[in-house]
TrEMBL record:
Domain of life: Bacteria
InterPro entries the UniProt entry points to: ExbB/TolQ_transport, MotA_ExbB_proton_chnl
Positions of transmembrane segments: 14-36, 120-138, 158-184
Subcellular location(s) of the protein: Cell membrane; Membrane
PANTHER family: MOTA_TOLQ_EXBB PROTON CHANNEL DOMAIN-CONTAINING PROTEIN (PTHR30625:SF11), PROTEIN TOLQ (PTHR30625)
The protein's name: MotA/TolQ/ExbB proton channel family protein
Family: Belongs to the exbB/tolQ family.
Membrane topology, record value: Multi-pass membrane protein
A Pfam family: MotA_ExbB
Length: 244
């Protein structure tokens, strides 16, 4: 029965169904490739990065670096780079922030690659299904116009079958990959938020430390070479007596 049903589909309908099949395979390949890429990038996993940030906030830079020593994933790489930069140059807060944001942006751009392929499948599949509908109706009405007298329903079955089948397949593919695209986009958006949160946490913690150091020892970090710090701050240095 299935063979006879397929035999009723016209050649243009078979071509459209073939294109839809290729598109579904392409979309599925992209989807599973993104799953593998997300797993390698550690999307959704924040164990090492969160542990390092907690150690950094407590002032344990060595423990934070050790937590990220063998960690993999985009968030761990961004946090590791930012902490290493601030460990080398504690006052280079703005360059560190810019570098971390650029690294995060590059990583997110990699995660977002080929997402337009899924969007293309979502947009093109219903259009191909509609094309199959038009082709099937043209075929059905063509047979109806060519028939003399009462039309045989069996002659119209092929065109109607083509119209309904291609429409259903196109809509099914579009809905399936639309949901998959939404899910992947949501994971990328979540990862972007967590990266911005991690970078902001590092930068704010370092700025607070610098402000505390300046408040407790305002001359620390200045060009102090051994002279009385009161003179450096504007107070006159003590003078020796006449006999001194």
């Amino acid at each position: 029965m299935q063979a006879s049903a397929l035999a009723q589909i016209s050649l243009p309908g078979l071509v459209i169904l073939g294109v839809l099949a290729v598109m579904s395979v392409l979309g599925a390949t992209v989807f599973f490739a993104k799953l593998v890429q997300f797993a390698r990038a550690g999307v959704g996993r924040a164990g090492a990065a969160e542990t390092a940030l907690a150690s950094w906030q407590q002032g344990n830079s060595a423990e934070a670096a050790q937590s990220l020593d063998r960690a993999r994933g985009l968030r761990a790489q961004v946090v590791r780079g930012a902490l290493a930069s601030l460990t080398t140059a504690p006052n280079a807060v703005e360059p560190t922030q810019a570098g971390a944001m650029q690294q995060a942006s590059d990583g997110l751009e990699q995660l977002g690659r080929n997402m337009r392929t899924l969007e293309g499948v979502v947009q093109a599949a219903p259009m191909l299904g509609l094309l199959g509908t038009v082709v099937g109706m043209i075929e059905a009405f063509g047979k109806l116009a060519a028939s003399s007298g009462a039309a045989d329903p069996a002659q119209l079955a092929g065109g109607i079958w083509t119209a309904l089948l291609t429409t259903a397949v196109g809509l099914a593919i579009a809905v399936l990959f639309y949901l998959a695209s939404l899910w992947l986009d949501g994971r990328i958006a979540r990862e972007r938020h967590l990266l911005e949160q991690a970078i902001g946490h590092i930068i704010l913690t370092q700025k607070a430390r610098i402000a505390t150091q300046k408040a407790t020892a305002p001359w620390r970090g200045s060009a102090f070479t051994g002279a009385d710090p009161r003179g450096a701050l504007g107070s006159p240095a003590p003078q020796s007596g006449p006999g001194g």
